[in-house]
Amino acid sequence: MSSVQVGDIVDDRYRLDAQIAKGGMSTVFRGEDLRLGRAVAVKVMDDRYLDDAIFRSRFVREAKSMALLSHPNIVDVYDFNSTGAHVYLVMELISGGTLRELLAERGPMPPHAATQVMRGLLTGLSVAHQQGLVHRDIKPDNVLISQDHRVKLTDFGLVRAVAQSDRTSDQIVGTVSYLSPEQVGGETIGPESDVYSAGILLFELLTGTTPFTGDTQLAHAMQRLTNDVPAPSSRIEGVPALFDELVAAATHRDPDERFPTAAQFLAALEDVATELALPSFKVPVPRNTAVARATEVVTPRPAPAVPQSTSILPPYEPPAPPVASAPETAAFPVLPPTPEAPAAPIVPRTEQYLPEVRPPQEVEVAFEEPKPVSNRSPIKLLAWLMVVVMLIAAVAVGGWWFGSGRYGEIPQILGLDKDTAVAKVVEAGFAPVVSEIYSDDVPVGQAVGTEPPFGQRVPRSDEVAVLVSKGQPTVPAVPLNGDIAAFRHSLEERTLSLAFGEDAYSDTIPVGGIAAVSPAAGVTVHTGSTVTAQISKGPAPVEVPDVTGKDQATATSLLSAAGLSVRSVTEAFSSQHPKGAVISTTPGAGSKLSRGSEVELKVSNALEVPDVEGLSLEEATTELTGLGFVVVTEETNDAREVPHEVVGMSKKEGDLVNPEAAQITLKIAGRVKVTSVTGLSVEEATQKLQDQGLNVAVRRAGDHVLIQSPRAGAKVAPGDTIELTAI
Fold first, then answer.
1. What pLDDT is attached to residue 389?
2. Which domains does the chain have, with CATH numbers?
3. What does the mean pLDDT of the chain come to?
4. Which residues have a catalytic role annotated?
């Protein structure tokens, strides 16, 4: 066991005043920080495990995790030491008790009470999830309730980062009643596992029991692999159907069907609370607690006076409290795909703290007989009479003081300025402590009242809270990341409460965060008002615009303006769209996509038939082949002045042709229409006829053509000879 004991001072700073609880690997003490003069909880690792790397790493991980997660719903960590003679963790002392102790005192809770407990638990747990951590051991023993009725999450000894929560051994650790199916099956563990455990805890709050049982811990654990968690209303009357649905959603056997994080579980819980119009509730503080018993050890009540004797009291030791009984955190084998009976018993892995048992010690009182008093001497008699008179006076004064004299009446300070109110409380014999609160009726800086209230009688010199108005509250600003838990805490500090409206799209707030609130931040509201938040659904989807028929550059520009980008461009034939025009998009026009998504473009590669009629075969062929067409010719009996002039095509001008079948037939004139050269010089006439592809024969008697044969307009074959007679 741990070598430290009550009364020891650890590292010359932390005095161990009383033991609160002990477990297999460490002991928790109520202590005092001698440097700062405050009460703390000191968790000291047992000396037996100082050289055990696994236990030491778990202890170190708990300290670092708790230090990282600073939040009102998580127990604060003040100090930690993993070197030297002792490994210890110094934490905030919660002078209330555990949720387990509250359940033992009061039994099942009504829905509104269970909601308030879960609200604090899920708020703290959501902070861990936002930091990428998984608690892995959610149970009533790890949920504390402070004296100011705040629910706090503790014991991060089994915490893991989400990225490190894959199965790494053949054993799993946790408390069997609250294990998730994936913990039992040895699968990857994420925030959904904590959601399942929290759902089991909600079931227990509503019914007073956990859903599964078994002859052994392993049999108990296996129940959740094959059975759904029953509806709480099947165990106890009065549970609304919405709570049955909430528990079912949180404890679905498939992690993908649960709330993904505690924040989403909390949002659903708030929706249920709003739908059922559940009243507000202050979580009660358990009374019979280990911390309370440890406090009594530190500050025992004085022994009653014994008349006519001097009490000789031995060192005081309190009677031992009863040993608490609670579910045990254990380690047991990961189940194979087809479970078989385990060959080895379940091995305890994580400690369960139990209050230390001490034998009661009787208080012995020794009496001394008073010496006899003689009244035979007048002087002695007179002296004794004076003593009696003084005693009577002292008793009278003491009676007055312990009766009504030591009490004073709280004065009325409503409406006074702060300084005057403080002075009036001092004048009445009390120690004022100024506290600012929100008020709808009292102006800023004026006294609202006192706590205890005006007219009550309390011991003089006691502290009295002087409540000074801060005026009406304003709606706080929403955190930049939209964190629900942080915003709720800010509201509660201003007496305000949180409700949820319809979810809304947001380009800046991630899914699950607060996108907007009503009234808006900065608006002055009445105390106790409700602020409605809209949870972000992420960026609003954008609609794919219709870019059919647009050229690629124009289509890309239109998509970019809509918040989309082009992933790829493919070509395809379309008889409706010319080359380069968009045929379609994938997804199609009108589809809803997340902003920033990518779209595929399909662009036409069709070939458009040009007008080549009237061109020579050579000119037409050059143009068509340049466009990608394959040219074939067909000769006709038509005659044209230009040899092999195109007189027709197999395709019409403007037709769109598949490039994979781009053949086009040109119809060309097979005859030449002889042009008129009469009256021209022989040289001019010869050149003109040769340009038509004809040969020329000249019978020269002069320089100008008088007769041509065949005559002008005659249809001849290319290469035929035209005879010219010149004079």
1. 59
2. 9-92 (3.30.200.20), 98-286 (1.10.510.10), 484-535 (3.30.10.20), 542-605 (3.30.10.20), 617-726 (3.30.10.20)
3. 83
4. 137
